[in-house]
Amino acid sequence: MGYGNTYECGTCFKVFPAGWSALNNHIRATGHRHAAAFECDRCTRRFGSERARFQHMEATNHFEWECSLCNETWPTEDRMIQHEHEDHDYCGECQRTFMNQNNLRMHLNSRIHRGQQVQCPFCRTAFTTATGLVHHVERGGCRGAAGLDRDTLYKYVRSKDPNGVITNNLIDWYGSTQYEATDSAYNYRRGGWECYLCHRLFALRTGLNQHLNSPVHQENLYHCPNRGCGKEFTTLAAIINHLESESCGFTRFNNVQRGINDMISGGRLIAF
């Protein structure tokens, strides 16, 4: 069998740099055989078929790709990386071990590994996740989308979700309720402005008003599409974050990114 510019006997492993004819003369004179075509990744053994080679490497743990944390070997780099993620909570690229799968997943889905590939269609600001994009638009902070906020975004999403995959069908909903704290909201005993809904204390009336008119105490507009989960959310950013976290197992992080991009760029109906 030829390896580079040399040829080797499969019986005595003598090498013949002169070429194929020299190896053939040696085999005819000695009765030796040509080397098998399939060589183990980690030892010098050769086999007559890829199947035999694979069975050998599987039995002897002789695959090319070795785990960074244990002596397990794998036939491909992707399978080795998957093993390190699932069995060791380890990121080989960053050489970091995490306390659990959730922490590792958050790290892998962070800007460190994903960059900023989700772009706002209105101002072209780039974000790492769909949650970042939606929060940017939903809070009314996009300079290219004046007037777009939680309420208008819900109406748009609802129009793309006729089957109620993630939106609640609120027949009597006319928009977010606006609150204004009165003097009676000041709690002299506690020394601050108190939210009568959750009893949280604020130093200034403006802080209490911002809290009252935030999504915290607004109606739930969205629900998790996983019927076994049942969680509801007041903002689109909150449900997108829930799905991106993969906490209820309904969909994968990448599917959420694609779903948001399809909705804002192509006008497709919502699906995960």
From TrEMBL:
Record domain C2H2-type: where: 89-118, 193-217
GO cellular component terms, semicolon-separated? nucleus
One GO molecular-function annotation for this sequence?
Answer: zinc ion binding
What sections of the protein cross the membrane?
none
Q: Which domain of life is it from?
A: Eukaryota
Keyword annotations of the record: Metal-binding, Repeat, Zinc, Zinc-finger
Q: Which is a Pfam family this sequence falls into? A: zf-met
Q: Which Gene3D superfamilies match?
A: Classic Zinc Finger
Which InterPro entries does the entry link to? Answer: Znf_C2H2_jaz, Znf_C2H2_sf, Znf_C2H2_type
Name by which UniProt lists this protein: C2H2-type domain-containing protein
Organism field: Staphylotrichum tortipilum
